[in-house]
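Progress note, project year one: complex with 3-methyl-2-oxobutanoic acid.
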Amino acid sequence: MSTHPSSSASGAKVRIKTLHSKKQRSEPITFLTAYDYPTAVALDRSGVDGILVGDSLGMVVLGYENTIPVTMQEMLHHCRAVSRGVSRAHMVGDMPFMSYQVSAAEALRNAGILLQKGGMDAVKLEGGRERAPAIKAIVSAGIPVMGHLGLTPQSVHQLGGWKVQAKSTEAARRLIEDSLTLEDLGCYAVVLESIPTEVAELISDKLDIPVIGIGAGTGCDGQILVTHDLLGLFDRFTPSFVKKYADLYSEMERAFREYIADVKDRRFPAAEHANSMDPQAFRELVREINTIEQEMDSEDDQPARLH
Ligand code: KIV
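Model obtained:
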């Protein structure tokens, strides 16, 4: 947890029991993603309940095609930056591809790193019943696990692209079973991504743990979006379920163009952006420089000395 002095975040730390109470009171839970310190500070002060350091950082910050190339080192680097900016919100670190699939022992070690070195409060991983050994190992070590079902981006190749999931009766039934399994395994919350509203609502009703939706409609206990999508900072594409609250990419490009034009036309830096010296000290400096130059010139005029 950060102790940075400039933080004006107020209110008690959001804990898992806070999220569970919100579900019981039918009070919507808010999550957004962050990958760096300034965004984390702004989110924490804005009053969001939870911050996910998502492996979506691979796409929206690091420029990868999908989330598959993201490594533990990259996740750790960004988790540390985010945790330095947060004092109130609940923080979740995403487990990257291949950090939890190989063995339960590796999954536990990597989850531990995200808490111990990354400063996170919990971890998130993708998948259903096939993740039982990993989830059991992590939860039994006292590390809270958030599940992630539906469109699981780390399986984008297996799923055949970024498609809405659980549209058939069979696929929806399997998703419901997986959600119940995650709850039984001890997950404290689950993210449902890109699934029909009706299915998400059914699952939210059936589970005691909070269901956080993204592209899963209004019936979930809470919502999450990728912050770069919400801010209009990601120029490649915007999923149809995103509401853009700003167009910061255009604003950023406008500011860069204005700066370049200002420098070229000598409007920047202006007087108020520059520092000046005491005039008397500057006159002395010029006198000294002139004297040194004259001495050097007269030395150059001397004939070379013979040894
Ligand atoms: O990585 C991420 O940002 C996520 C959210 C889309 C839930 O997993």
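Residues 93 and 123 are 5 Å apart (CA to CA).
The chain has twelve helices and eight strands.
No further modelling is planned for this target in the current period.
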